[in-house]
Amino acid sequence: MTELHDELPRTWKNEVTKHIRSGDVPGAVALVCHRGKTEVHTVGVQSLDDTHPMKRDTIFRIASMSKPIAAAAAMILVDRGKLALDGPVDALLPELANPRVLKQLDGPIDDTVPAHRAITLRDLLTLRMGLGYIMARSDGYPIQNAINEIGALQGFPKPQVWPEPNTWMAQVGTLPLMQQPGEAWMYDIGIDILGVLIARAADQPLPEFLHHELFDPLGMVDTGFFVPDDQRHRLATAYSTAPDDTGLAVHDAPTTSQWASPPPFPAAASGLVSTCDDYLAFCRLLLDKGRYGEARLLSESSVTGMTQNHLSDAQRAANRIFFGQHSGWGFGMSVVVERGPDPIRPGRFGWNGGLGTTAHTDPSENLIGILLTQRLMDSPKPPAIFTDFWKTVYQNIG
């Protein structure tokens, strides 16, 4: 394979710049690490209200890119014998003990049958616990109404809105499951429940555990569940498509940000902020099979479990809006299962964040790609800037 070359007519840097110049996205920080060589491209502005340029250390809300980090934290506890992959979670999550399952997805929430078995840690990591989003028109479903009433699924993260973890878990525990444990992949409440489980197993708040076990050893100094006051000038403004579809509207501004203070509920599925270099350190940990420098933070077997597909063909096919034709799900992230018409290789793993971020690692090429923007995704389907970025990355390395 050849190294990256900026002089190629179509480069990953030029593709990212093209989307900024078109006005689709206010700014971006793109990073490619190929066989140990790292290049970073910054373009555009942190906010449309000023001319403050994007910088390598700009802080982004990484949303669902939090999920792989939560999975790694859980596997640290598995390595230490504090959690068991296939053991019931009832002892630490009594709210989920003796679950009941809806007879019909659109039926009354009290029309249930006993679950065939208990919910396990593996069910949470693989999002097969039986509770999550219904990816269909379902406004009239009683279970969807019940979920909305207690705010169990918030959509795009609003960290200051959620109650504290024990209150939230008590609310979740009042809900029946939508599917039998292990039978269906459902986004994405399982990872938020996982965060509560990690805190209880570690006997410390989730933010403290993540900092002590992952962020501090990896040097992830700007990653956490909020941005301190003296660093908020580095937080990019988040934008969404305007209601009239004519431009962009502010979703979260640094001066009034939901991430301006520690949240009542540290959402493992979506709550973190980070930078490109911080997230690169985490990706390197997985690429190096649990080692970071001289330190081993995860066992090789745990990383293998995280980065292999655990879904059946039927479960993958039922969620093609998330996976396309060729991917599945490991622990907390997607995994490419088979080669498709695009250049992405089997074995590549990672995930996107709904607030406009993406990061994936390809062990076969010793390749890490991270693209951070502040434009919210309009659907689970990756936006053009993501697909163009990855397509040209692979073209540039041969």
Q: Could you characterize the architecture of this molecule?
A:
By secondary structure, this protein is an alpha+beta fold. The protein is built from twelve helices and 15 strands. It has helices at 12-21, 66-79, 121-125, 142-150, 165-172, 189-202, 206-218, 276-287, 300-306, 313-317, 320-323, 384-396; strands at 27-34, 37-44, 60-61, 100-102, 112-114, 238-241, 248-252, 273-274, 291-292, 295-296, 327-329, 334-336, 349-353, 357-362, 367-373. The strands form five sheets. Strands 2-1-15-14-13-12-11 form a seven-stranded antiparallel β-sheet, sandwiched between helices. α1 packs antiparallel against α12 and α2 (66-79) packs across α7. The model is unreliable at 1-8 (pLDDT under 50).
Beta-strand content estimate: 15-25%
What is the residue-averaged pLDDT?
A: 93
Number of strands: 15
Poorly predicted ranges: 1-8
What string, H for helix and E for strand, traces the elements in order? HEEEHEEHHHHHEEEHEEHHHEEEEEH
**Largest sheet report:** 7 strands, antiparallel
Shape: globular
The largest sheet has its strands arranged as: 2-1-15-14-13-12-11
Radius of gyration: 20 Å
Measure the end-to-end span. Answer: 6 Å
Class based on secondary structure composition and strand pairing: alpha+beta
The helix fraction, in percent, is: 25-40%
Question: Helix count?
Answer: 12
